[in-house]
Write a structure and sequence with these properties.
four-stranded antiparallel sheet; 3 helices; 4 strands
């Protein structure tokens, strides 16, 4: 789930901005939810609503909808280190089996 977000941070954020780079990956639990974040010090999103014409963001959004339906959010913004931040919020569970059960007919994740 996080791999395409980190890849996007490198390719679209850090590669286009010279100098030192920061990528921060974080996870925390809050009131029964798991909050995942990928932030970078790169160029940031060019607009408030990032372009989803590539594979990374659109595939991540599709995967979240497949696994969690409407019980998930993905938000895009400006990180505190100057670049972009993507925040994913999903239900916290000790075992992801309930989410995997929603995938029918062995659909690939």
């Amino acid at each position: 789930l996080l791999q395409p977000l980190v890849e996007n941070a490198i390719v679209h954020g850090l590669a286009v901005k010279p100098g030192c780079a920061i990528i921060r990956i974080g996870a925390r639990r809050l009131e029964g939810r798991l909050i995942l974040e990928v932030a970078d010090s790169g160029a940031g999103f060019p607009t408030a609503t990032p372009c989803r014409s590539g594979v990374g963001l659109s595939a991540t959004e599709s995967r979240l909808k497949l696994l969690y339906g409407t019980d998930q959010t993905i938000a895009y913004g400006r990180s505190d280190v100057g670049g972009a931040i993507v925040t994913i919020t999903i239900p916290f569970t000790a075992s992801p089996s309930h989410a995997l059960a929603r995938v029918s007919n062995g659909a690939a994740l």
